[in-house]
Amino acid sequence: MSETIARKVQRSLQFLLLCFCAALASPLASALEFQGIWQQGAMLVGHTEPGNTVVFQGRTVSLTPEGSFVIGLGRDVKGPVVVAVGNGKDSEQFSYPVAQREYKIQRVDGVPQRTVTPPSAEVLKRIRHEARLVREARADNDRREDFLQGFIKPLEGPITGVYGSQRVYNGVPKNPHYGLDIARPTGTVVIAPAPGIVKLVYEDMYYSGGTLVLDHGYGLSSTFIHLSGVLVNEGDRVAAGDAIAKVGSTGRATGPHLDWRVNWFGVRLDPALVLAYFPAPH
User: Fold this and answer.
1) Does one domain contain both 170 and 90?
2) E strand or H helix that includes residue 14
3) Burial class, 220, CB count within 10 angstroms (exposed 0-12 / middle 13-18 / buried 19+)
């Protein structure tokens, strides 16, 4: 073998060895994929090798037996965000940019003034108690894969409020709106947008009126508020399309409508994005 050929063979072997070492050093490089959009308010469904660990925003994320999982991006999250994946021996971080959104200002007049400025310490105590009940209902991490079946609209009708808009009630700036408002007459039936288990039924919360929380598994939940009635009980298992509640105008509302909200644990997501990127198959 000539010296030139020997050098070429040596370089080729060195290159292959470097590639092999790189592969060993980064065995997770192709072990992570996502469905959805990296945008404020979005839900994303990821997949990795079963048995891997996934950490997102400081939270260790639960995986299905097949390696699927769900995460969520809040209204004001700034990118890039980091997802860390490990397999017990190696770990790697993946960085994703987050598209920023512009939110509208929505002025809502005519709501009961008591729901804009709570009148007493006793009412504030009630508000905090009810908020804790909702947080607890959304905090469960049930290992059910209902969210993987996709979502349908819980109600058809005019959209009167969107996720993220800054709300000004009776001239007083308040927290942003985190739901999708759909206007229909009082008593119109609301259906389950995806399968789940009913985690909370509350007849009359101070701000949200008739309230229902439906758990879709792995920290993903739907909340339905301003209801005039609830057709299910806590602990019930429902399928997508089942009748679960009735439209109302209870709580801080000016007219009958459904306010549908989606959460990943405490992270508030945009229901419109959930419908757009995770529609249930027809």
Assistant:
1) no
2) helix 3-25
3) buried
Residue with tokens 């942003």: 176
**Do 244 and 212 contact (CB within 8 A), yes or no?**
yes
Q: Report how many domains make up the chain.
A: 2
Domain match, 119 and 82 both: no
Q: Cis before residue 281, ω within 30 degrees of 0?
A: no
Contact 180, 254 (CB under 8 A): no
Helix (H, G, I), strand (E, B) or coil at 175: strand
Please name which of 146, 152, 151 lies closest in space to residue 64, comparing C-alpha atoms: 146
Tokens of 32: 């992570």
Model confidence pLDDT, tens digit, residues 31-61: 799 999 999 999 999 999 999 999 998 899 9
Domain containing residue 142: 105-277
Question: Based on the domain organization, do 60 and 195 belong to the same domain?
Answer: no
Position 45 in a domain: yes
pLDDT tens across 128-144, in order? Answer: 999 999 999 999 999 99
In this prediction, what percent of the chain has a pLDDT beyond 70?
Answer: 85
